[in-house]
Amino acid sequence: MKRVFLKCFWSILASATVFVLSVVPIPEVPEVEDVPLFDKWVHMLMYAFVALAVWFDCYRSRADRRLTWGVVAGVVVWPILLGGGLELWQAYLTTCRSGEWLDFYADTVGTLLALPVGLWLVRPHARRLWQRLCRR
Questions:
Q1: Neighbours of 53 (CB within 10 A)
Q2: Neighbours of 24 (CB within 10 A)
Q3: 63 vs 111, residue with greater confidence
Q4: Is residue 27 part of a domain?
């Protein structure tokens, strides 16, 4: 159990952060008039962050950088399931938040936008970055 936790640490941390931000009551936030659909942009960024954390965890401990369907499925499926589950949670289990289809679409778009970033930036450099962080 400890090994799985350590192997998936950043994914768990990112997912837990998004979970907390999604279910706790938030104070009224004034609308940002200059940015249309500001809330949806926030959703896209949060789920791109989760997907990139999954990319990083998948490749930081691997010697090879082969792209497998399992990795791609994990990077795509986990954040989308998290987003859908949290939207259902908000709709049916909270009184202070509401689940919305557009939020779920924004979650999915953020996840899909993280695919090329993870593919071209995180995958080639995750192991090297992890080794540098561990040396300090």
A1: 26
A2: 10
A3: 111
A4: no
Total domains in the chain come to 1
46 within some domain:
yes
Q: Which residue matches tokens 């399992």?
A: 70
Classify residue 30: in a domain, yes or no.
no
CB 49 within 8 Å of CB 14: yes
pLDDT at 136: 61
The parent domain of residue 117 ranges over 2-22+38-135
Which backbone phi and psi does 7 adopt, to 5 degrees? -70, -30
Distance of CA 48 to the CA centre of its chain: 5
Number of other CB atoms surrounding residue 7 within 10 Å: 14
Please say whether the beta carbons of 50 and 76 come within 8 A.
no
What is the DSSP secondary structure assignment for residue 66, as one 8-state letter? -
> Over the stretch 81-125, which tens digit does the pLDDT of each residue have?
999 999 999 999 888 888 899 999 999 999 999 988 888 887 777
Q: Looking at residue 121, what is its pLDDT?
A: 82
Distance CA 114, CA 59 (A): 15
